[in-house]
Specification:
Blueprint (H helix, E strand, L loop, with lengths): L23 H16 L4 E3 L9 E4 L7 E11 L3 E6 L9 E6 L1 E7 L5 E7 H14 L10 H14 L3
Antiparallel strand pairs: 1-2, 2-3, 3-6, 4-5, 6-7
């Protein structure tokens, strides 16, 4: 199982790089990410959250199969938006309502290196956008009101074990 990097680690603010090819190292990373995701009871995890700067994330949303997104690109987002309380394995204990498009079209490679396009909506669309943000050094708290973000971050650091 992999350790999850948490708020304050500079790695979370870095832009991830393209996965050049799906070799054994990347396959092992994907397997370990799924183990960690399940252990921490999450529904999405980006490689950057476990210390790898590859453009790669996984999802395991209830009602959908486990998915791997290698070198993803968001092609379209809907005009309709919805607010939903998000959390993040990298900021445990912090949740906030985030406004995001309800639907997205994403293109990526799967774990076998095959390209695919997915039209996602509702919770899966939200998880795709959340994890995609991680690949660009963006956290969900960056998408909320600055005053609320400041309060939540202060609360996180006050509650976080030293």
């Amino acid at each position: 199982m992999l350790n999850i990097i948490t708020l304050g680690d500079e790695q979370l603010r870095k832009h991830s790089i393209l996965v050049p090819d799906l070799n054994g190292t990347v396959h092992t990373l994907i397997e370990q990410m799924f183990e960690s995701l399940r252990e921490y009871k999450g529904i999405g995890l980006a490689a950057v959250q476990v210390g790898s700067l590859y453009r790669l994330f996984i999802t395991e949303v209830g009602g959908d199969k486990p998915r791997v997104f290698v070198n993803p690109e968001i092609l379209e987002t809907s005009l309709e938006q919805a607010s939903y309380e998000e959390g993040c394995l990298s900021i445990p204990g912090v949740e906030a309502d985030v406004l995001r498009p309800q639907r997205v079209r994403v293109q990526a490679w799967n774990e076998k290196g095959r390209p695919f396009t997915l039209d996602a909506e509702d919770l899966l669309a939200r998880v795709v956008q959340h994890e995609f943000d991680h690949l660009n050094g963006v956290l969900f708290i960056d998408r909320i009101d600055p005053k609320k973000r400041e309060r939540l971050v202060r609360q996180y650091y006050t509650a976080a074990p030293l």
